[in-house]
From TrEMBL, chain A:
Short name of one Pfam family: Acyl-CoA_dh_1
Oxidoreductase recorded as keyword: yes
UniProt domain Acyl-CoA dehydrogenase/oxidase C-terminal: residue ranges: 221-371
Domain of life: Bacteria
SUPFAM superfamilies per record: Acyl-CoA dehydrogenase C-terminal domain-like, Acyl-CoA dehydrogenase NM domain-like
Acyl-CoA oxidase/dehydrogenase middle domain segment(s): 114-208
Alphabetized UniProt keyword annotations: FAD, Flavoprotein, Oxidoreductase
Protein name per Swiss-Prot or TrEMBL: Dehydrogenase
Taxonomic path: Bacteria, Bacillati, Actinomycetota, Actinomycetes, Pseudonocardiales
TrEMBL record, chain B:
Protein name per its UniProtKB record: Acyl-CoA dehydrogenase
Similarity annotation: Belongs to the acyl-CoA dehydrogenase family.
Keywords: FAD, Flavoprotein, Oxidoreductase
Alphabetical list of Gene3D superfamilies matching this protein: Acyl-CoA dehydrogenase/oxidase, N-terminal domain, Butyryl-CoA Dehydrogenase, subunit A, domain 2, Butyryl-CoA Dehydrogenase, subunit A, domain 3
Required cofactor names: FAD
Start and end residues of each Acyl-CoA dehydrogenase/oxidase N-terminal domain: 7-118
Occurrences of domain Acyl-CoA dehydrogenase/oxidase C-terminal (ranges): 232-367
Pfam families: Acyl-CoA_dh_1, Acyl-CoA_dh_N
């Protein structure tokens, strides 16, 4: 049986049905059962090292899996940060002990991770973060606040950036830590986004103690670790599989046009074709990035192209949705879940061009790190962190 | 699906790129632009010497039987250099028409000469309004004493001025059909059109009792469609080459041009525009490689993949070429700088097979919208 056939047969047998109105706890329990079974079947962490619980396969196999999985709505969204960002960074930078301890449970969905980077005063300029970790004998004591932390309410561990030396320029005094989200002093408070839901949180650290072996990478080399993880994040966001019920995909908008009797309208047709073209161009680019990775050239900063193009694609889809539905996208009768979903998707679209690095940040990365254009003059580059003005504080 | 070039394909690219660097620098392109003849015969012979005109022609007919991926690699380089040679006309449109017609005798006669480049052929499919296939209405076929004769005209014929032979889509009393006309035929008048793009010659052909040879085809309109699909992604490959040139020269300029005390590429307004050019180019490259691969390995999916390539590359190249002029500022608007040549080629290419709205409508048809 080919790998594709194996995947197809396994998915047909094992993907759980989506349960409407399931509670968050039920959804996570379902996701964990599914992920453990996926790992038992040898289909989790396909490209991850076999030594730590992965399968050691190629990106081409991952592509096969993604293509087959596209026919389903897998319940694995809750693992996106674990598997798309934190896990690959542990694999890249962790000690043997850290990899042996954390990677397998992460891949099995037994432990969920979150990313603790952004702060109220450190958004696009993550390196200006103020949460501090101070040495106390062999251990570290952490105080500060993180924000926009997706999934922190479900997380068992977090990858934390904290300032370990304020007397050097901002990039040089940061360390990445592995933090137990259940430790004393960690408080997670939900934060509502503009859709009215609360997928992200504020996280407070009040004298949280971390052991010496919580450092991921080197002390004061946290910026390197952060860049590593942000690279994985962009690839993960840009290359992520769209959900089948996502109302802003070409397929679902074409269906909407048919349902509303708009599919023969010449403007609707050409705009839908344009949307298809943009969606396909991005997906083919992602395929090519994976094939190049298999051939030995990793995507690096080019992942920013996928992230940027993905956001632009969504904005285009919002425009096409409006063209198709007109004011029907803005008001509807009670009990019309499709209209409800579309409205939520329209309201959630700004996240695509902000979360994981704004479009402006992505263009800066492409310009500087891919095309080699000169940087803006950096006024804070050589100034010790403690002398900097940060965020919107006076 | 394979979207990354293998080492042989990369070698082919290097060989063509080197030849063009030596024999088709911008100065040479401008020489041809200003000359009486719309193309570079010497360059065409050199290119043909590499065997690139026969890449999709089967070995039994004198080609290399390589494939569309390889031909697209060549087209990328030609587009990057704005090489004034009848490759699109002869090695793409004419070769693909003969292959799609599938007439054994015609193939045996023409393909070996097309493969070596000694025969330059063009394809005439449009009338005055320029839509593909409209030549079936603007050219009437009659049969006198057992000989076919054409009356009427075709226009926008790519490299029509260079052709020794023209494949013509013309109207018979029984519907459209395909005909072969010698470039030297009596009653054929070839006139070069004035063109927006000085590096690509287009011609009008007038037929007055012009003798022609009929080529039997079960479904002449299907041949036309097949050729148009292949032209769509072949042209897209050429457009991709031009787009790459625009990206590279613009980024290079942004690194060296200093204003207000620093390189303009350090300003976000310029840097972000360069990032958008890169994003466009990288997605365009994926789409072109996919269409070429599809033509070789999954022909059933080609109609969508080919339409997709034109939808992405048409506006993608033109908008980038326009941005290229903009980012060069005043010097980009001068005749002396090459940016305008890419702008003009991009606009012509965007319209050659139908305007962007028409291309998107065509894609919509293929998606069964």
């Amino acid at each position: 049986m080919s790998f594709r056939e194996t995947v197809r047969a396994w998915l047909a047998e094992n993907v759980p049905k989506t349960v409407e109105n399931a509670s968050a706890e039920e959804r996570i329990a379902t996701a964990k059962r599914f992920q453990a079974a996926l790992h038992d079947a040898g289909l989790a962490g396909l490209t991850w090292p076999a030594e730590y619980g992965g399968q050691g396969r190629t990106a081409a196999d991952q592509q096969v899996f993604d293509e087959e999985a596209a026919a389903y709505d897998l319940p694995t969204d809750v693992f996106m940060i674990s598997m798309g960002m934190c896990g690959p960074t542990i694999v890249d930078l962790g000690t043997h002990e850290q990899k042996a301890r954390y990677v397998r449970p992460l891949l099995r969905g037994e432990e969920i991770w979150c990313q603790l980077f952004s702060e109220p005063g450190a958004g696009s300029d993550v390196a200006s973060l103020q949460t501090r970790a101070v040495r106390d004998g062999e251990s570290w004591v952490v105080n500060g606040q993180k924000v926009w932390t997706s999934g922190a309410q479900h997380a068992d561990f977090g990858a934390l950036l904290a300032r370990t030396n304020p007397d050097v320029p901002k990039h040089k005094g940061i360390t990445m830590f592995i933090v137990d989200m259940h430790a004393p002093g960690v408080t997670v408070r939900p934060l509502k986004d503009m859709t009215g839901q609360a997928p992200f949180n504020e996280v407070f650290f009040d004298n949280v103690r971390l052991p010496a072996d919580a450092v991921l990478g080197e002390v004061d080399a946290g910026w390197f670790a952060a860049v590593t993880m942000l690279g994985h994040e962009r690839v993960s966001i840009g290359g992520s599989v769209r959900r089948r019920y996502d109302p802003l995909t070409y397929t679902n908008l074409a269906d909407l046009a048919r349902r509303l009797g708009r599919a023969r309208d010449p403007v609707v047709r050409t705009e839908l074709a344009g949307l298809y073209a943009a969606e396909r161009a991005l997906s083919l680019f992602n395929t090519r990035l994976r094939q190049e990775a298999d051939a030995g050239s990793p995507p690096g900063a080019r992942g920013s192209v996928a992230k940027l193009a993905g956001a632009e694609l969504l904005w285009r889809a919002v425009r096409v949705a409006g063209l198709i539905a007109g004011v029907r996208a803005a008001a509807w009768d009670e009990g019309d879940p499709a209209a409800e979903e579309l409205a939520i998707a329209i309201n959630a679209t700004p996240a695509s061009s902000i979360a994981g690095g704004t479009n402006q940040i992505q263009r800066g990365i492409i310009g500087e790190r891919v095309l080699g254009l000169p940087k803006e003059p950096q006024v804070d580059r050589d100034v010790p962190f403690r002398e900097l003005r940060v965020g919107t504080q006076a | 699906m394979e979207l990354v070039l293998d080492s042989e394909q990369r070698q082919l690219r290097e060989a063509v790129r080197e030849l063009l660097a030596d024999h088709c620098p911008p100065a040479r392109v401008r020489e041809i632009m200003g000359g009486d003849e719309g193309w570079d015969r010497a360059l065409w012979s050199r290119l043909a010497g590499l065997g690139v005109a026969g890449l999709v022609i089967p070995e039994e007919h004198g080609g290399s039987g390589a494939g569309h991926v390889e031909r697209c690699v060549v087209l990328e380089e030609l587009g990057r250099a704005l090489a004034p040679v009848p490759f699109l006309a002869s090695a793409v449109l004419a070769v693909d028409t003969v292959l799609a017609l599938g007439d054994a005798e015609l193939s045996a006669e023409l393909l070996p000469q097309l493969a070596t480049g000694e025969l330059v052929a063009a394809v005439a499919v449009a009338g005055d309004e320029g839509t593909w296939g409209s030549a079936a209405h603007s050219i009437a076929v009659t049969r006198r004493n057992g000989v076919f004769a054409l009356d009427g005209h075709a226009s926008f014929v790519v490299s029509g001025d260079a052709a020794h032979l023209v494949l013509v889509y013309a109207g018979t009393p029984d519907g459209p059909g395909w005909f072969v006309v010698s470039g030297e035929a009596a009653g054929l008048r070839t006139t070069r059109l004035r063109t927006l793009d000085p590096t690509r010659a287009l011609a009008r052909l007038d037929f007055a009792g012009t003798p022609a040879r009929a080529v039997a085809a079960a479904d002449p309109a299907a041949v036309l469609e097949a050729v148009r699909d292949r032209a769509a992604f072949a042209l897209a490959a050429e457009q991709l080459g031009g787009l790459d040139h625009v990206l590279e020269t613009t980024v290079d300029y942004a690194k060296v041009r200093v204003q207000f005390g620093r390189p303009i590429g350090s300003y976000q307004a310029v840097k972000h525009a360069c990032a958008d050019l890169y994003s466009t180019a990288e997605q365009a490259r994926s789409v072109v490689r996919h269409a070429a691969w599809t033509a070789d390995h999954d022909p059933g999916a080609l109609p969508v993949a080919a339409a997709l390539a034109q939808v992405v590359l048409g506006p993608g190249y033109f908008d980038s070429a326009a941005a290229g002029v903009q980012l060069h500022g005043g010097v980009g608007y001068t005749w002396e700088h090459d940016a305008h040549l890419y702008y003009k080629r991009a606009k012509t290419s965007e319209l050659l097979l139908g305007a962007p709205e028409e291309q998107r409508a065509r894609l919509a048809d293929r998606l069964a919208l």
